[in-house]
Amino acid sequence: MVKNVETTHRKPFTLRVTGRLRVDGAIVNAGQTPLEDRGELSSARLGLSGTIGRHWRYATSYEFSGEDPAFETAMLSYTGLRDTTIKLGLQREPFGLEQASSTRLIPFIERALPEALAPGYSLGTAIQTGGKYWSATVGLFWDEDGSDLNRFHRVERGMTGRFTVAPRVPPFVLLDTLHLGLSTTYREPDARQKIRFRAEPESELVDVKFIDTRTIADIDRYTGTNIEGAVAHGPLSLQGEVTRISVMRKNAREELEFAGGYVYASWRLTGESRAYNAKIGSFERIKPKRKFGALELALRYSTLNLNDALITDGIRGGKQSNITAGLNWHLNSQWRFMVNYIWVTAHARQGDERPQMLLGRAQFEF
Fold first, then answer.
1. d(CA 271, CA 296)
2. In the chain, N or C: fewer CB atoms in 10 Å?
3. Confidence band, pLDDT 50/70/90 cuts, at residue 144
């Protein structure tokens, strides 16, 4: 009898195949720098996920598009502890609300400008836990390949953590969701002791980075702090974040600081609300109420300053601000069509840039 009970509760090996296709296009009204209209298959991803026995889960995804196809995630998770998950492998570091959300869940085609300051995917070990009104994640991360200076997470060692709360006490009970969060990261660079920060104008199709610190040498360590907040009530929601990076240098060279932030509002014209999961501190996919799908309007302001805020060592990477208006059609759980119009204002080393861009995306998931 006991054997039958154990068999009933034991989860066998399971396998789920997932995938994503994205086609993007851009029409650009260029500023000082010549830019070309473009279209491409921006994502062709295949993933496998499932369970191994009762307490183990696995997830992996491979991105086939672009010049350098690679694994996006490759992770093994242990779920045998109550309300706690231990994650091992290639994963996204827990830093900020927008970074914690897949791009398929945010109301814009690309993340905001401060993404350039945030850690991305890294090898590591993380512990995630949470309750009805809170979440916490902390991890140790590293990357043996230090050849790419264009990504913040290309470091030898790092520690990153995030804590969120969703209070349900007066007067916050009047809202569907109130979300607050704080993230921090500590980094030690690889043996070359160099880093670099630069940003695309919220479009991977526009092959230019107006603001760029170029390579910064003699790095001892650097830290990052992110403050996040969001409110949602019915079909309306507001969200914003502020990120600051502090860079400590060797050889008596003074500290550097860079910062960025964004705020946006979104409105589901068809009445849908943003579902929220407090245990992971993130919003979930919009589920259309009507047969023709859900319509969503969004407006975002984002800014990134790569000029050293302390003005100590002449690092003048430039400053950029974007205003983005978006319209999304969530046809169903598989299809989404998006249009963004972006006004860019960049004060760069080579001069001021004010291009405007019309972006479009068709996305299919299974």
1. 9
2. N
3. low
Q: Name the token pair of 58.
A: 């696995």
List phi, psi (to 5°) of 9. -90, -10
- Beta bridge partners of residue 129, listed in sequence order: 84, 136
- What percent of the chain is modeled with pLDDT above 90? 72
Let me know: does 308 contact 256? Beta carbons within 8 Å.
Answer: yes
Tokens 């006004």, located at residue: 343
Verify cis geometry, omega within 30 degrees of 0, for the bond prior to 34. no
pLDDT above 70: residue 163: yes
Tokens of 168: 């349900």
Q: What distance in Å separates the CA atoms of residue 361 and residue 366, rounded to the nearest whole number? A: 17
Whether residue 304 contacts residue 116, with contact meaning beta carbons closer than 8 Å, is answered with: yes
pLDDT in tens, 43-66: 999 999 999 999 999 999 999 998
The b-or-e profile of 333-356 (16+ CB within 10 A means b, else e) is: eeebebebebebbbbbeeeebebe
DSSP 311: -
3-state secondary structure of 12: coil
- pLDDT range class, residue 311, cuts 50, 70, 90: low
Distance CA 239, CA 177 (A): 11
CA–CA distance, 227 with 301 (Å, rounded to integer): 16
